TrEMBL record:
It holds the Pfam family MFS_1. This is MFS general substrate transporter. SUPFAM superfamilies: MFS general substrate transporter. It comes from Eremomyces bilateralis CBS 781.70. One of its GO terms (molecular function) is transmembrane transporter activity.
Amino acid sequence: MKEMHHSVDPADLDPKPYIGHVEHVEKGEASSSNQDIAHDNPEYLKRLKKLTLKIDIRVIPILGAMYSISGIDRTNLSNARVAGMDVDLGFNQGNRYSIALLVFFFTYFIFEIPSNIVLRKVPAHRYLAFLAFGWGVCIMCAGFAHNWIPIVIIRLLVGVFEAGFFPGCVYLISSWYERYQVQQRIAWFYAVNVVSNGFGNILAYGLIQMEGVGGLRGWRWIFVIEGLITVALAALGYALIVPFPDQVLKSRKPFLNEDEVQMITDRLNRDRSDAEFDEITWPKIKHCLLKWEIWLFALMFMSAAVGIYAFAFFSAIIIKSFGYSVSETFLLAAPPAVASVPFAIFCSWLADRWRTRAPFAILQSIVTLVGMILVRYAHGTGPRYFGVFLGTAGCNASLSTVLAWQANNIRGQSTRAIASAMQVMFGAIGGIYASTTFMEKELPHYTSGIWAAVATQLATILMCIGLAFYYMMRNKQANRGERILEGLAEFRYTI
């Protein structure tokens, strides 16, 4: 490596957890010679591929299933509203519905980072299962509310429990994979949620048919049954959720042997040298929060969340305004969500293959923006419904891209825990933004809400362009030997 002629910017160096890698930085060695030999061995690569598939099967499906029910539980208020809760509990008066949507995000925002800190201190299977059990019980209780105020209180509690689940899952997934494997895994994990949410509308319609069973209205059965499903999945999660890589051999029933764990550790160290956990401390939290790029990624995630929540909370209402019956509305709300999955998976596969993020984030924001404009200004039911397809596809695909882009450009498990929680925390702000800008008085066109969402997509495009140029400049400086990025000589930012 060229001799260093310029001082290293302290902002590029992670704090003390990387002291163990100082020799690594100075010599520019990516790994030990034994690891390099193994890495080039065809037999080793074959074993590694089988091991990666084994991890995929154990990590992604159970987390995806549990998160999918959280998405249904978070948005089932709109289904219950269409099915009669509106009148029964007085949500058709004033801004009560918007208030019930809004309060969820306050507690969801507050508990994101604390929850990810707890996740490293409590076994993942216990903590994530506990969170799911907690919000499942709350959702069940919503089925027995007799006015709108208990629903608001329940939404506050659901926000507390759900706050830690999504960032915890992203943190756990990103800890198992190399930088250019992670977007596809996040996309598959999130795809389960998207498909389930799509069919969640059909499930809700089926539950409404239980009208009068046990003396309960159909909309009440939506909450009761979906809450029970969540509790059952929490029990399954307790049995199946895997620990972090450095905790596997200490777990109750290791699903990998010592040799397999070493292979994973070697692979992660070759990729970014942060396989070992470093304790989360206040100085590390401060160091992470002072990195302006982390805030930019959080704003990008917020923009994606605005579109996601807008379509989740209001697309059924918009579709119903086309003149469809309640049953037709539930059936027509599912296809846009399901159709968005192939687009998201394809973009993620291509982004990992090309090792790039910014062009895809820009493309997905444009697709979301066009969809929003069609929903508001297109003439005729068909073009407006097509806008729902485009908008849903764009914002759902954007989520995995933005998450993966941040994960690619940070090092250290403590930094990863804080940054992923903060990024998802801003998703709560996106939910608040969507809930307040899509106003009841503007139903069904929601002109202010549409343009507020369009503004977030334009902002994302500008942020992506600016961040991409910044990373290009930093990479060129590192290539010339003028600086070390993220405390590792071989590290380069993903653009």
